[in-house]
Design a protein that fits this description.
Blueprint (H helix, E strand, L loop, with lengths): L3 E7 L7 H13 L5 E7 L3 H6 L2 E3 L5 H6 L22 H13 L2 E8 L1 H17 L4 E6 L15 H22 L6 E6 L6 H5 L13 E3 L7 H15 L2 E6 L12 E5 L5 E3 L2 H13 L3 E5 L1 H6 L6 H19 L5 E9 L4 E8 L24 H7 L11 E2 L2 E2 L20
């Protein structure tokens, strides 16, 4: 095959290790100069592809590209812009294909979660309909760990490690002050429909009186009376209570406890903060002094305490994605197949994007304790290997040596395109 170019793009909420995936894509592509001429990166995800804003990776310093392995955020820019059905947004899909054709791009790698897998799947379909050679490969990433098929989603292990450590550290603080001050600490974590991140907090403790004393999962309907009783019991037994709550906690009617009444760019209900809502219940029902915190962006950007396991899987899927494209694969995604828990061993397999797009993997019932407030031994066996190992960034003057790329764009060849 003649040489062609490769386009890589980042999508959705970024992670502590998505740039490690990008670095692996760039390094692997460089090993195949007879097949891949240039590597481009779309500025701000699919928006960059639509606007023909393509970053020339060759113009970045080699040391800066290497530093992507330990830099959080999305180095090339991400976005929350969802392409709808082929019927509704056909001009958008055709525009991406046209941009790729104009720049001799025959390999398109989209690094994201469920919605990104759907976009990549539809792009593969439209390219085939138009008779354009474009190998579309989805690259997994999401801190929510909710992609189907794969054992783990790159990005999850690091957020899980951060939340487990933060839960432990904050709990030691609360425990030391509980006699005369705060008795209940509430930590809100991400997870709209799947409670994987909340579950990871359970790794902080091993016995009944260890924190977190209560985990509130999206998969378990919130029962106010049972929750209040559990808080009171924990304070009685341990002297204090640590509660970890997923942002997607729902009541018996199916409504988010923290629903703000607005929608985000993907059409999802925007959530307004379940942590303070839970803390207010504690105050109203029990009168305990409390504090609450929202991990928010801190949890997904904490590269300083990233999981070595997560860094490895994040790099391997980037490498595999390039190889799949060069092998002529299309409309697929590299996924993780677990071979053993301890030590954690895995291999890369290939899954059809149709089996991943718009599918959501929630916590299995056997991972949630019978009372609905904690994790089981099965969950611990699954989670523990994913946070193993440390992958510290290099430090200088007390600060991590993160990098920002120059992101120089190539010249456009097509007319301007308005993205609505």
């Amino acid at each position: 095959m003649p040489r062609a170019n490769l386009l890589y793009a980042q999508s959705g909420g970024v992670t502590a290790t998505i740039n490690a995936t990008a670095a692996a894509v760039i390094e692997t592509a460089a090993k195949h100069p007879s097949r891949i001429d240039r590597v481009y990166a779309a500025k701000n995800g699919i928006l960059g592809a639509l606007r023909e804003e393509l970053i020339d990776v060759r113009l970045e310093r080699p040391d800066a590209l290497r530093a992507l392995k330990h830099t959080p955020g999305g180095a090339f820019g991400s976005c929350r812009f969802k392409l709808k059905s082929l019927e509704q947004d056909r001009p958008h899909y055709e525009r991406v294909v046209a941009v790729c054709a104009a720049h001799n791009i025959k390999y398109f790698l989209y690094n994201g979660g469920n919605d990104s897998a759907d976009t990549t799947h539809k792009l593969a379909q439209i390219a085939q309909q138009l008779g354009v050679e474009l190998h579309c490969i989805g690259v997994p990433k999401t801190i929510d760990n909710d992609l189907a098929v794969t054992d783990v989603c790159p990005g999850f292990g690091s957020v899980a490690k951060y939340i487990a450590i933060s839960t432990l550290e904050a709990s030691l603080d609360v425990m030391s002050m509980a006699e005369s001050s705060t008795k209940v600490f509430v930590l809100e974590v991400m997870g709209r429909h799947a409670g994987w991140i909340a579950a990871a907090a359970g790794l902080a403790g091993k016995s009944e009186n260890d924190p977190p004393h209560i985990i509130l999962f999206p998969e378990v309907v919130f029962d106010r009376a049972r929750f209040v009783a559990a808080v009171k019991d924990a304070v009685t037994r341990a002297g204090y209570c640590t509660v970890v709550v997923s942002e997607g906690l729902k009541d018996a009617s199916g409504k988010f406890l923290a629903e703000a009444g607005t929608k985000d760019a993907f059409g999802h209900a925007q959530l307004g903060g379940v942590g303070p809502a839970i803390a207010e219940i504690v105050r109203a029902e029990l009168g305990y002094k409390f504090h609450w915190a929202v991990a928010d962006y801190l949890q997904r950007s904490a590269r300083h305490i990233a999981s070595r396991t997560d860094l490895l899987v994040s790099s391997k899927v980037g490498e595999a994605a390039v190889k799949l494209a060069l092998d002529g694969q299309n409309d697929v995604m590299p996924v993780i197949k677990r071979l053993s828990d301890r030590p954690y061993k895995f291999r890369i397999e290939v899954a059809a994007l149709a089996d991943i797009a718009n599918h959501e993997r929630k916590m299995p019932a056997n991972f949630i304790r019978e009372d609905g407030f904690g994790i089981t031994a099965a969950a611990r066996r699954y989670l523990a290997p994913l946070i193993e190992g440390e992958a510290y960034p290099p430090y200088k003057d007390g600060m991590p040596g993160y990098v920002q790329l120059k992101r120089r764009l190539i010249a456009k060849k097509l007319p301007e395109y308005l993205v609505k």
